[in-house]
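It is worth pausing here to work through a concrete case rather than discussing structure prediction in the abstract. The textbook approach is simple: state the sequence, then state the predicted structure, then interpret. We follow exactly that order.
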Amino acid sequence: MGILEKLLETDVEKLKAESSAKFEVKRLSKVLGEPFIIDCKPLTNEEVKHIGEISKSNVDMKLNAIYEVCTIEGRKFNNKELLEKFKVITGKELVQKLLLPGEVFALYNFVSDMSGYGKNAIEEVKN
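Step two, the predicted structure:
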């Protein structure tokens, strides 16, 4: 059976990358005295398009991506209690308040890799 026939027989939902991964922010774990875990999922094509439309800079794009697909204990960064505690209006501002620039960069790189932008996403086939 060829690859096209297999694609035609496969449930479309199985092709979606809905896996998630957990990442520990070691600095915040040390401050809080317990693991500070952020759970992220891959970006969808629609999310990539939306982030591209609303982002004004490269840093803004990274913050928006983390805001869109990452959570803390299942809660998005726009959690009302957290926004009030840290005196910010948006979830993106909360990401910026909680994470250092290098942590934002590292987390974005993980999300980017999960979304198929990593070096190992595709491989050249040599005949």
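Step three, interpretation. The longest strand covers residues 21-24. The first helix runs from residue 3 to 9.
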